[in-house]
């Protein structure tokens, strides 16, 4: 059941970074940038700007939400750490939101299958699929990492409009556009993950403590993968 709460939401899971303040379905304030600046430079000033420009005290916020992954290992950690740091002193409840699920809310008014994709490199993507009908989002699969070709083999079986969102959308669209007419790419202004989607998704999710809030990785960081491979080769 949806409850109208004032939610401060954060997303720093990829190159774009955003903060949003919502009250139920109302967006009170939002800040989105997609620059080469690091999130460690931009996120806290963005949070301050949203709160200051909406005359909102952090103490008046009901819950804090953050995209916990998948995505950039560093970016996800920065967002989770920022929310933990705000929530702990005030004992505010937190909400853990999948980055991929939050992106589905970009297309909440479009009846379609949303294919949320983030570039995981090495011809792979982080992906989840969602079906939207009459403003209701249904998750079709869990968050996963798979190859671009494997994803196409799955979505071609749907036989209906599939819309790509995320920073891997263009990569997948360029691979699929000659193969099918059912796959579309979301317009630039609603293509990327955004904290407003995080806040919308958070409305119907369970609250947890700041201590319980943790990043969600679908695979090990590159350094750990390389170390594991070296150790296996030494056996």
Q: In a nutshell, what does this entry contain?
A:
Helix content is 32%, strand content 28%.
Features:
alpha/beta, six-stranded mixed sheet, five-stranded mixed sheet, 11 strands
Could you give the topology of this structure?
Elements: E1 6-11, E2 17-23, E3 26-33, H1 39-53, E4 63-67, H2 73-90, E5 94-97, H3 99-104, E6 112-121, E7 124-133, E8 136-139, E9 144-147, H4 148-155, E10 162-165, H5 169-176, E11 183-185, H6 195-202, H7 222-233
Parallel strand pairs: 1-4, 4-5, 6-10, 10-11
Antiparallel strand pairs: 1-2, 2-3, 6-7, 7-8, 7-9
Helix pairs in contact: 1-2
Mean pLDDT level: 92
Can you tell me the residue ranges where pLDDT is under 50 for at least 5 consecutive residues? 220-228
Shape: globular
Class based on secondary structure composition and strand pairing = alpha/beta
Oligomer: single chain
Radius of gyration: 18 Å
Taken in chain order, the helices and strands follow as: EEEHEHEHEEEEHEHEHH
Could you tell me how far the N terminus lies from the C terminus, measured between alpha carbons in angstroms?
A: 53 Å
The helix count comes to 7
Portion of residues in beta strands equals: 25-35%
The major β-sheet equals: 6 strands, mixed
Overview of the structural elements:
The protein is of the alpha/beta class and 235 residues long. It is 32% helix and 28% strand. It contains seven helices and eleven strands. The protein has helices at residues 39-53, 73-90, 99-104, 148-155, 169-176, 195-202, 222-233; strands spanning 6-11, 17-23, 26-33, 63-67, 94-97, 112-121, 124-133, 136-139, 144-147, 162-165, 183-185. Strands 6, 7, 8, 9, 10 and 11 form a six-stranded mixed β-sheet that branches. A five-stranded mixed β-sheet has the order 3-2-1-4-5, with helices on both faces. A hairpin with a 2-residue loop joins strand 6 (112-121) and strand 7 (124-133). Helix 1 (39-53) crosses helix 2. The longest helix is centred in the middle third of the chain and has 18 residues, at 73-90. The radius of gyration is 18 Å and the shape is globular. The model is unreliable at 220-228 (pLDDT under 50).
